[in-house]
Amino acid sequence: MNRKEFIQSSTLAAFGTIVAPHMLSTRHITTIKALAFDAFAIFDPEPISKAVQTLFPEQSKQIIEVWQSRQFTYQWLRALGHEYKNFWDVLLDALDFAFLKCGLDPQQAMKEQIMGAYKSIQAWPDVGPALQQIKRENLKIAFLSNMTTKMLFRGIQNSKLNEYFDDVISTDELQTYKPSPKAYQMAADKLKLSRDQILYVPFAGWDMAGAKWFGYPTFWLNRSNALPESLHAEPDGKGSSMRELLEFAGNHKR
Length: 254
What we know:
With 254 residues, the chain is of the alpha/beta class. It has eleven helices and seven strands. Strands 4-3-2-5 form a four-stranded parallel sheet, with helices on both faces. A three-stranded mixed sheet has the order 1-7-6, covered by helices on one side.
């Protein structure tokens, strides 16, 4: 049994058992009518890292670290400098810098192979059953992501999740990036709900902080067990699986 099969079987078996997530401050949450997800809370990024590891086994760790760091640096610098590029193009620029930093000059086919992992991205094993349950509870489901709309829809189609999303919201529409307040406002506008009615589900700690600063209740889906950022923002709940998110949302739905 591989890693994904193990996670999937464990998750499905656990859906029938209530396990309380790590709850934090929930006293300000009233009624949740929608969940808005960051892309990587839904999509598993591991195949992207594996593509780098396959091509550059000895330097993969450094390439991945530099690439990830520069992705966010370039997004935020371009947003602040009003020199916008979309998520896909920033990924390419950051990858070029990572290769330069590592002293590599890869063939174009190698870059395409790495970026191709984004095109074939799929959901984490526990996502489908969880979204089914969320829809049964009559809660709206949306993406709120820095990825382009094309990237998000491709991932949805790859994962066969077309029927679950009420809205697919990309910050590319406003040519900005989270954690800009304008980016977070998009979900409230599109879903026609107040901030306190939308539970935001980030993958990264910085995104959780940005959403809390904006005023969303948040459940930090910390799948990678990342350390919390020192940004003086605490999630309303946190866990590493959709099962824990379901329990949390169930306690605060309308």
